[in-house]
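Morning. Coffee machine broken again, so started the prediction first thing and wrote up yesterday's gels while waiting. Chain of 115 residues, entered below exactly as on the submission form.
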Amino acid sequence: MLINTPKGLVLIAGCGHAGVINILTFAEKEFPNTPVYAVLGGLHLFPATDQQISWTADKLKDFGVSYLVGAHCTGIESVYQIRQRLGLTRQSAVVGAVGATFVLGEGIHPGRLAQ
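Came back before lunch.
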């Protein structure tokens, strides 16, 4: 699901088998010159190699991603590598957990389980 907000696009992915970059490339055609504010959900990167994760992170950086909640099939290590490559903080790029929320204008609230 893609939501066009005043801050940019928010992508909510269940399990991005099509590839998060493929999804965002399609979104870019529909919403040209609109940054991707947040990517939330499963990115299907758990089985990815370090090289594939680096490539994906570089592309996410090109899209202007400010927030990342990698859940489900993203993989913990993938989230950490992407966060580092994008220069995001522990507050702006997290592993999704039960109870975590994302509030436009506020960012990520990790939820009680992650605290």
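The chain has a mean pLDDT of 92. Going to sketch it on the whiteboard this afternoon.
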